[in-house]
Design a protein that fits this description.
Blueprint (H helix, E strand, L loop, with lengths): L2 H10 L7 H5 L6 H9 L3 H11 L3 H7 L3 H4 L12 H11 L16 E5 L3 H12 L3 E6 L18 H8 L1 H4 L3 E4 L9 H7 L2 E4 L33 E3 L2 H4 L6 H20 L41 H8 L9 H5 L1 H5 L4 H13 L8 H6 L5 H5 L6 H14 L9 H10 L6 E3 L9 E4 L2 H6 L1 H14 L4 E5 L4 H5 L3 H17 L4 E4 L2 H10 L5 E3 H8 L12 E5 L8 H14 L2 E2 L18 H4 L1 H13 L4 E4 L2 H8 L5 E3 H5 L5 H5 L5 H18 L16 E3 L1 H10 L3 H14 L3 E2 L6 E5 L5 E9 L2 E10 L10
Parallel strand pairs: 1-2, 1-4, 2-3, 4-5, 7-8, 7-9, 9-10, 11-12, 11-13, 13-14, 15-19
Antiparallel strand pairs: 6-8, 16-17, 17-18, 18-19
Helix pairs in contact: 1-17, 3-4, 3-7, 3-14, 4-7, 5-7, 7-14, 8-13, 17-20, 23-34, 27-28
Length: 776
């Protein structure tokens, strides 16, 4: 990821984009933060937020033209917030409404401000704070310009005068009865001052040196406010005209002109980095679909202003607009307390570290890569693609922690070993039109259903149905092992081509995704589409059974035909379907995707529980891993094949599924069983390390599952300990404690010998290497 890619990805995340109220406010008052403070009853905090952007707060809180209210998203639900009324009560009831001025050291530069209205006064205050010496020339005998045209009721004179006192705090030099043209010429100002700002009202004749448009207004640069005269700037109602008077716009224009004048006097670019100044269109998306209507709070009868309590209730209506659409639906994104823009930066920084600890490794490896974030993102940002690319980069840099995916890769290696792999034409056939590829997880979880499905396919499909047992290689891809993934696919292709490149019938949606990316879509078909097209096996009960909620695997996200086929099959069997809130293209991951379960088990637990909590009905899964994950946490979950073949019993829905070691045995035994029963080939039954018998209680098996320890791992440790004598003994219990590091993981076993083997009392593992220190 280079800087260009980083910025492109950061730009996609709109969470930090301003809400509509802030973007449309020319002065960018943080309305969201102000409302949040009012809703908490903290009017002093709200006043502090308001005063950061508004140098004349009482004036604006009374006569602001509130463009923010015109775009308030609350109006899409009921009524826009009364933002100006909230500003008014904040200024009335906060303990302090004083604007604090901090002036920088003098820059020995002078600027002239022509006109004492809001825009000119704002420009004067902003420049004075930066250390410039300021002269304000006002043609009348008082400051404020057109503000005096408001009635006493609209803008009390006491408050107007109070705000105008700010000029005395700056300070600036004031010259009244000084009209441009008659009392002072532009040439004189250009000669005596380093920059000039003209902020007079409409209808006043401008000096001939300034180029005008057809309506008699000065032609200015829309970004910098500079006129045709270098160093001379203009703004305020002289540009907008009397009919478009905007007090908040005048403050914004004065401030923007002050930025340009500051840059001009310092000799730097006037136009650089001026994006989103003034009112602009925001890219922020904020959903209002689930907001309950609640009309605008009105002041008590007989009053035009809110009480503090009424203001609090009105401010509570603020939606506090933000996006976070992806964070709302993703436990992973919630877990790290941020949002994609922050995560992309963390990923980039993590990959850029040359020396030192990479604190982002766990975050990068914890993503399930499922793509739900992209599905709900208004800008199509896919954090999974970012994390996956980072994993590949970490592998290239030799910075991928071996512990993150070691267990899953060992499991894949076993699935593609000679003990498991099988590739055959249908018995009696020399070619195959179809090839059933059940995938490694269905073979591990439910080998009986693999056999039943293969029998069904041979009965229904013509032209020969071959069978292949192995893993598609997805774990290698998910873990960033590009070379291993390519080699795994090459090995598959060699066997596939040897069988004549038949159409793949896939029970696993992960395999379907892998092979769809590799081959033409015509060469792959989902098993569920085959069942839906060719009908259920004979004898399946078509009466109504129950109501279920379908859990679609995340790897079917963009497979609507599979979604439809699964639901069609359920209706044919007789089930009613109650859809989950996040389903089909917006389904959630079960935590297996991206190897989250192996890299971050604690997060995986949260992901599984989140899905369970969202499903009041019994779940229906058509991915073996999904079914086993939910059932292992106590959630009744059917596998679709159990319903199709009529083998679903009450116990089947709550059966937790086989442990890791059992899953390995199931794959190897499946190969031996199919060779014997389908092809009539004698094959020794898989025994693994079963010549060493271990007695393991259920609670220890559960610990081993959590810690990702296989039975054969324990057998290797015990065999090594018994052979070498490297073991510790507890004198009181007589139990042995031994450890061994066959690869990158050190395994510990607490055991005692039994008559026919060994009894296991505890087991655990870690990724540290124990080194004996030799003292000399």
């Amino acid at each position: 990821m280079d800087q260009k890619e980083l910025h492109e990805l950061e730009y996609k995340c709109i969470q930090e984009c301003a809400p509509w109220c802030i973007a449309r406010c020319p002065a960018h008052v943080d309305v969201r933060a102000m409302n949040a403070a009012v809703a908490k009853g903290d009017l002093d905090l709200a006043a502090g937020v308001f005063l950061k952007k508004v140098p004349f707060p009482h004036i604006i809180s009374h006569v602001c033209d509130h463009p923010c209210e015109n775009v308030c998203r609350r109006a899409d639900v009921d009524d826009a917030l009364s933002i100006r009324a909230l500003e008014k009560v904040v200024m009335q009831q906060a303990s302090s409404s004083e604007v604090k001025i901090t002036r920088l050291r003098s820059k020995n530069k002078r600027a002239a401000i022509v006109g004492g209205g809001l825009s000119g006064l704002t420009a004067a205050v902003e420049l004075a704070k930066k250390g410039f010496d300021i002269l304000i020339l006002e043609s009348s005998d008082r400051l404020g310009g057109s503000l005096w045209e408001y009635s006493e009721e609209e803008l009390p004179r006491s408050l107007l005068n109070q705000d105008l006192e700010l000029i005395k705090k700056v300070p600036v030099e004031l010259r009244f009865k000084a009209a441009l043209g008659s009392d002072v010429s532009l040439a004189e100002l250009e000669s005596d001052f380093d920059a000039v700002y003209i902020g007079i009202g409409p209808g006043i004749q401008l000096p001939a040196e300034i180029e005008l448009d057809n309506e008699g207004r000065p032609i200015v640069d829309p970004v910098t406010f500079q006129t045709s005269r270098q160093g001379v700037f203009a703004g305020g109602s002289i540009l907008t005209g009397a009919g478009d008077r905007s007090p908040i716009g005048s403050i914004s224009g004065g401030r923007r002109a002050a930025v340009s004048m500051d840059r001009y006097m310092q000799g730097v670019s006037l136009a650089a980095s001026r994006e989103n100044e003034g009112a602009y269109e925001t890219r922020l998306y904020s959903s209002v679909g689930e907001i309950e209507p609640q009309g605008r709070i009105l002041p008590a009868e007989g009053s035009t202003d809110y009480s503090a309590e009424e203001a609090r209730r009105e401010a509570e209506r603020c939606l506090q607009c933000q996006c976070l659409e992806c964070v709302k639906v993703c436990e992973y994104l919630q877990h790290y307390k941020g949002y994609p823009r922050k995560y992309v930066r963390q990923v980039y920084n993590n990959l850029s570290i040359v020396a030192g600890q990479r604190h982002g490794n766990l975050m990068i490896n914890s993503c399930s890569l499922c793509g739900l974030c992209q599905e709900v993102c208004p800008e199509d940002l896919h954090m999974g693609e970012v994390c996956k690319a980072a994993r590949y980069t970490m592998m290239d840099q030799n910075r991928m922690p071996p512990s993150a995916h070691e267990f899953a890769l060992r499991d894949m290696e076993f699935s593609n070993s000679d003990l498991v792999t099988l590739a055959r034409h249908e018995p009696g056939m020399t070619s195959s039109t179809y090839l059933f590829f059940p995938g490694c997880q269905l073979s591990a979880s439910s080998p009986e259903n693999v056999g039943r499905t293969y029998t069904y396919l041979r009965e229904k499909l013509r032209g020969g149905v071959g069978l292949m047992l192995r893993c598609c290689g997805a774990p290698a891809d998910w873990s960033g092992r590009g070379q291993l993934f390519s080699q795994t696919l090459a090995d598959f292709e060699a066997q596939w081509h040897a069988l004549g490149s038949p159409t793949l019938v896939l029970a696993c949606s992960t395999c379907l995704g892998v092979f769809s990316d590799r081959f033409s879509r015509e060469k792959v078909v989902s098993l569920w589409e085959i069942f839906d097209r060719h009908g259920l096996p004979q004898g399946v009960d078509s009466g109504q059974v129950a109501t279920v909620s379908v859990h679609d695997p995340c790897t079917t996200r963009h497979e609507p035909k599979i979604h439809d086929s699964v639901r069609s099959l359920l209706r044919k069997i007789g089930f009613e379907i109650r859809e989950l809130e996040l389903t089909r293209e917006k389904t959630e991951c079960c935590s297996f995707g991206g190897l989250m379960r192996f890299a971050n088990p604690d997060l995986a637990e949260k992901v599984i529980q989140r899905r369970i909590d969202a499903a009041p009905e019994t779940l229906l899964a058509y991915c073996a891993v999904c079914r086993d994950h939910y059932a292992s946490h106590g959630k009744p979950t059917w596998h679709l094949l159990d319903l199709i073949f009529g083998t679903a019993t009450g116990d089947a829905a709550v059966y937790r599924g086989p442990y890791f070691s059992q899953r390995r045995e199931n794959r190897a035994r499946l190969k031996a069983k199919l060779l014997r029963e389908v092809w009539g080939e004698e094959s020794p039954d898989y025994k693994g390390y079963r010549d060493m018998k271990l007695h393991i209680e259920d609670h220890v098996l559960q610990l081993m599952e959590t810690r990702m320890i296989l039975v054969e791992d324990l057998q290797k440790v015990i065999a090594w300990a018994e052979e070498t004598g490297n073991r510790l003994v507890h004198k009181e219990t007589g139990r042995f404690l031994a450890h061994h590091r066959p690869a990158s993981v050190t395994y510990w076993v607490e055991y005692t010998p039994a008559d026919d083997g060994y009894t296991i009392h505890n087991a655990y593992s870690h990724r540290m290497e124990l080194v004996e220190e030799i003292k000399r």
